Amino acid sequence: MKPNIWHRMDVMARRVTPFGLTVLLLFVGLLPIHVPGFARVAPLFPLMAIYHWTIIRPDVMPPIAVFAIGLLQDLLTGAPLGVSAAVYLGVYGAVLSQRHFFLGKSFLIIWIGFSLVAAASGIVSWIIVSVLNLTLLEPSASFYQYLMTVSFFPLLAWVFLHWQRAMLSTD
Amino acid sequence: MKEHPRIPQRLAAPLKILAHKFTYLGLVIGAFGLMLLGKADVVLVEKIRTQVTEAAAPILGVLTRPVETVSGIIEQAHKLSVIHEDNERLRQERDRLLQWQAAARHLEAENKALKGLLNFSPGPRISFITARIIADTGGAFAHSLIVNSGTRAGVQRGQAVMTGEGLAGRIVSAGRMSSRVLLLTDLNSRIPVLVESSRVRAVLAGDNSEQPKLIHLPPGVTVVPGDRIVTSGHGGVFPPGVPIGVIATVSDGGISILPYVTRERIEYVRIVNYKLEGLVPAPQTRERK
Fold this sequence. Notes:
The structure holds 2 protein chains of 2 kinds. By secondary structure, chain A is mostly helical. Chain A is about 75% helix and about 0% strand. Chain A has helices at about 5-30, 40, 45-55, 65-75, 85-95, 100, 105-135, 140-165. In chain A, helix 1 runs antiparallel to helix 8. Chain A is globular, with a radius of gyration of 17 Å. Chain A starts with a helix and ends with a helix. The longest helix of chain B is centred in the N-terminal third of the chain and has 40 residues, at about 40-80. By secondary structure, chain B is α+β, with helices and mostly antiparallel strands. Classes of the chains: A mainly alpha, B alpha+beta.
């Protein structure tokens, strides 16, 4: 059997696209959008991507990719280094362990699951950043960011599903 | 599995899971290690941050363009809809400002004459570097911006960042072609300020909310909402007298300031190059402060 190198490279390239898409979304989330109050509560696109791909295709979102995305986010946003990386890895681990529950469930269940995961990750990040700064941070910004993140999820899930059909259905 | 025919299938799968688990654990520990590193070696972390920001700056710079075009069109449409009211308002404002202009001219002349009498030595000259915002790195935990100017244009760590309305923040790290601005609302921002009317010194401390707090006010001093807050120039990094905001509320919980600069409306900033000329400032000017 002759291994077709081009076919394998094609499959490989397609498999890294979810990671690339997530990095692009991270950048998009940083753009200065001139809407009052938006910057503080901008939805966490990478969280949605990590949640989605861990359920649907964990092989395209390995822990090292999750770590890299979190680290890049910390470096670019100016948040304490390592916080997003740790929180995203926690999300990855928690979702992976419950993956079989989510598979094949209706979108509503997946969305509710996301709202729980986002709440937990928001609270944990808030605690970690508060401890690192040795002060209690104002919780309202985190809360509104959580609401934004949960309400943007269906849109992004729709994008990811179409992405998966277009790019990843061959393997 | 085809690459490792020697390892039996029943052993390979559990080994793979084990390796996977170890990688995962290692990365979690690594993330917490980075948090400690961020606390222990601030300089190193800031260096890495600057490098990564520098690498991301060109991408962000390109991505920002369409966003600015769209928001520009929306703004234009909005302006057209309120053009009549704006016109009327501006007319009234101009009449009022003309009176102020007369007062200012009179004071300027008087000030100049008095300075001449006192043999006053003027402060250093100020030059500006204009930069475009390429990222509003919001989030709930940090208030900073990334701008597309760096050390090549003369930007240095610590310089004040202004808009037409007032002080926005200061440069916390400068790469070659990009810099990070720490907004005055950020938790780590501390700026020496004056209450403009009473000339009382204080420090403006950000707390990640929209309204930073005034701290280290001398005891026995009273301030009232509406008082203007300006930079004091202490420390020699910021030029004195740059407007920051007004006192919004005074309560037991602290004195909160409403800044003039709203971060959503910033598109371009002026970075203030305020260098004290000569190595040691003249002794008289030191004592005056």
